Amino acid sequence: MTSQHAPTATLDGWVKRPFSGAGLSHDCFEKGAGPGVVLIPEIPGITPEVLGLAEHLVGEGFTVVVPSPFGEPGRAATTGTVLPIVARLCVSAEFRAFAVNARRPITGYLRAVAAELAARTPGSGVGVIGMCFSGGFALAAAVDDTVLAAVASQPSVPFPLGARRRADPGMSAAEFDRVAERAASGELCALGLRFSNDAVSRGARFRTLKQRLGDAFEVITLDSSPGNPTGFPSGAHSVLTTELRETPGHPALLARERVVAFLRERLTPAGG
After folding, report:
1. In what residue span(s) does the Dienelactone hydrolase domain sit (predicted)?
2. pLDDT tens, residue by residue, 74-96
3. For the domain with range 15-267, which CATH number is right: 3.40.50.1820, 3.30.310.50, 3.40.50.720, 3.30.450.20?
4. Strand, coil or helix: what is 210?
């Protein structure tokens, strides 16, 4: 069976509830049963493609919480929905889109979401997945001991204007030190995904992360070079959503399978 489009889903069956933490309040959407996973949406928000990924995780046996810190949940991504969100995020103190060596207020909120989810789901901790604008937030959330697995898919913040921003890990030095400490002790493992020619999520950031986290940071790079065998466009960016096709052997599908296996390895209680 082949598929010409990325998997999508709706908000049907998802339970919406407000959640406050670290001085911030946003709605969260929850579904599923099993170990906990926090799925942070990409720009412009909880799109049908993000929900397609969320539903897949639910089907794989996870309790999934999707915070909604920006955008209109369930609305499709169009130029008209993306541009206003980008404009707002660029100037928001909550996200600090251009700052280097920065502690971002949103990551404190995400840690609170993760901790609350960990307290009521099986196992000793949860996983966090970030994508695009939110990719690095997953790693910054891993400062918290309740985060056992972090997935950074095409992390793009700070936006890559200049060499310092391209190589910045997406968190403050103190946060990076703590993440590296947890990785070295075996408490935390992380997975990074990106397209080889992605101009927004640069290889320099992955090199920074790999240098500090070592074997605890697994990197998956999908070939998007000119003439690549899969036919990924030159601007391919969203590994787990927009560019994924549910076609056997498709590189992005294999990447999603690895994410699920990684989460299961890290989060499934012994004997579960």
Report:
1. 34-153
2. 999 999 999 999 999 999 999 99
3. 3.40.50.1820
4. helix
